[in-house]
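REQUEST ID: PR-0412
SUBMITTED BY: lab tech R.K.
PRIORITY: routine
TASK: structure prediction, single protein chain
INPUT:
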Amino acid sequence: MGFKMGIVGLPNVGKSTLFNALTKTAAAQAANFPFCTIEPNVGEVAVPDARLEKLAGIAASKQIIPTRMTFVDIAGLVKGASKGEGLGNQFLANIREVDAIAHVLRCFEDGDVTHVEGRVDPVADAETIETELMLADIESLEKRLQNIVRKIRGGDKEAVQQERLMKMALAALEEGQPARVVDVDAEDAKAWSMLQLLTSKPVLYVCNVGEAEAAEGNAHSAQVAEMAAAQGNSHVVISAQIEEEISQLEDDEAQMFLEEMGLSEAGLDRLIRAGYELLHLETYFTVGPKEARAWTIKTGTSAPKAAGVIHGDFEKGFIRAETIAYDDFVSLGGEQPAKDAGKMRAEGKGYIVKDGDVMHFLFNT
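STATUS: complete
OUTPUT:
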């Protein structure tokens, strides 16, 4: 499984430029005017992982298949979006469909690129978007609470649970807090996710800085870092301009360009890593002569559930998993040497898969 991240922000903050760079496509029109992205553009990128190439080299795999991440470029929100301003209703609906929000904030000065509010203040921009999402959630919850009354009177247990959770969310929102601050019990987690609240989604702030500031950031990105830390959210510093430029280069040229700019890696790598941490994701591998492949799972996933990511039948008929830790596979030189050294383990249904595990599943058909 991969995950879907929505790229949001005010108009002209660099969302579409970043999207184009990340997906190496010009599908999203980047232009200096609001609403140049009317329909959400969707792009998939391979998740870079040096471990996968290392495993493939050892196993002489004919094919390398990385796991993938989906980006959704959602058009620029403005004040009043919760009331339908600036095509707001359409955009808010698109945000409901993603797993996490990458909130792009303008942290660069450029007189040639207009700001919808006529100033550069990323913290105020973040507050504008958050306020609109909170207002949209409040309106949605108030309507649903009215509509659920009849079901509650009829003794519908699910409706009773939904009402309790909606009231918890509404209480937080009315105090000016996003729904993600609500402490939800494990037994309520599924029902809570079904509410599809915009402010319950985890947020990653993406500070879009100028080329010269990509390595160290600037005063604007420092303000965002402070805000993110106070909220318990994450942030990354990226120059969309640089990402766009390197997306057009071959790998060797791109690496040289990054080194010249004082960067050790592309912004895409940092963004995906931050996204993985945000959603508590990790990777396991299947390796053989035919292919070396990466699979994404949630941290804490059991072996049968991990097998189910490959195919539902693997989970249903799960017998056991043959598992080798990544470091053992690499240091010993492959599956057979690891097996000979006693480093291949037979794990049952209760095993919790660890990041980097190299796995082979046995199952009944």
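NOTES: The first strand starts at residue 4 and ends at 8.
REVIEWED BY: pending
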